[in-house]
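Hello, quick one for you while I still have it in my head. A protein chain has come my way and I'm curious about its shape. I'm sending you its amino acid sequence along with the C-alpha cells. I'd be grateful if you could look everything over and explain what you see. Here's the protein in full, and shout if anything looks odd to you:
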Amino acid sequence: MVRLELDQVVMRRMKEEDIEMIKALIKEGCEGTENRLILHILTRPLCLFILAVFSSILRCLVHSFILALAIPVFLLIIFLKITMPRSTGVLGSSRPYWDYVGSSYRGTQAETLQNPYCRISGKTPLTKKPRCRIGSKDKDKEMSTEKITPEREQAAGQVWVADCEGEIVGCIFRESETRAGIRRICRVVTGCWYRREGLARLLVQSVEQRERETGAHRVYAHVPYPSKVGEVFFKKLGYQQLGEGTDEEEDDEEIKLETPERGFLGHPLTKVFYKDL
C-alpha cells in the first residue's frame, strides 16, 4: 500500500491521451466483477430451472450425463459474456459501452474540481504531464481523427480523473444529463495501490459539490450487484438504497424513473443508490 497525499491530487477532466490508462484502470478495478455477475445470474431459481429443462432434453440426445449438464451452462456463459457490458465498459450507464472519445475534454484551459484538502493544508498540487504507455501513440492518433460533434460530447457524459504528480490514480464516471436536476454516477475506480486512502470519497464528494453548484438536486449511483464494498461505501456517504421501502420513495414520482440495469431474464445487474444534495 502506497501512502497518498490527498492535497497533492488534482481532479481534472479526462483527455484523449488518458483513455488507454483509464481503460487499464477500469479493467484492473473491475477484475472479477463480470464473473461474479454471471455466477449471480446462474444461481437464480428461474435460471436453474431453465438449465435443468435443457439438460433433460439433451439427456435424450446425448449419452453422457456430464455433457448434458455442461453444454447448457457453457452456452449460457458464452451468451452472457457477449451481451453483458465489458469490463472496460461502464456498468450502470444507460449504454452498454462508454464513449471514451466523446467524453474526452478538449478545452484549452484545464477544468478541475475543488480539492478541500488543498485549503486545509495550504499546499498547491503539482500538475505534471501524464505518463504515456508504450505503443499508445499510434492509437491516440487514430482516435483523434474521429469526428466529435457537440451533440456527441453532450451525450457522452464526463470522466473525471485523479491525477497525482502525472499519474492517474483514480477516476469517476458521470453520465450525461437526461433529466433536469438529476445526475448519475456509474463508476468509481481507484488504483489498487491507493485504496483505503480516502481517494474514492474525495472523488465522489467533489463531483457532488460541482453538480450541486450547477443546479443538481439529486445524484444516483449504480453499483454492480455483487459488490458489498460499493454498497457500504455509498451508504457511508449518505446514500440510500432504492427499494428499501421508505415513505419518501412511495410519494416521489421522479425516483420511480430510475431503475437498475437488468440482464438475462430481467435479473438486476446493479443496485441503485440516491442522495439529495
User: Anything to note?
Assistant: Residues 133-137 have pLDDT under 50 and may be disordered.
